[in-house]
Amino acid sequence: MHTTFKPYAFYLVALVLFLSSCGTRKYTVKSDTKGAKAADAMSNLKSKPLYRFITDWTGVRYRFGGLDKGGIDCSGFAYLLEKEIYGVTLPRISRDQANVIRKKDIDNLKEGDLVFFSFGGNDVDHVGVYLNNGFFVHASTTRGVIVDDLTLPAYQKVFVKSGSVN
Predict the structure, then answer these.
(1) Which amino acids are annotated catalytic?
(2) What Å distances lie between residue 12 and 19, 21, 23, 24, 101, CA to CA?
């Protein structure tokens, strides 16, 4: 009995072996990436309602004066979060929100405290809500609602004050 060599059979076997080997590789995510650290901050939240609120709003685009899922600004996001999660009614504008907090050192912040920035001069013009481990959530003008790293130089340079509303 004589068998003829079929080259396509060889390639088929080689392809199957290659594809099956891909499934056995272990891929690891660097735990020090920005995304991994933000996810870690979210997983360490004490308040499950806060976790749900943030995940529900993450990615909603920024819209100046916005107060719904069609678009929201930073002070509107802080306003809604504080009202829904903590039962606290804040003023609507970030500058006014900064005036009603009890000032706290950045190293003593707790989940739900507010952090304020001045990107355009001396007045407060941006607000976020502190989570933990140096992370906060805010409505970014370019990225929408996002968890961000407060220790980044871009935020440290414009950081104005922080504190609690309780």
Answers:
(1) 74, 126, 138
(2) 11, 14, 17, 19, 68
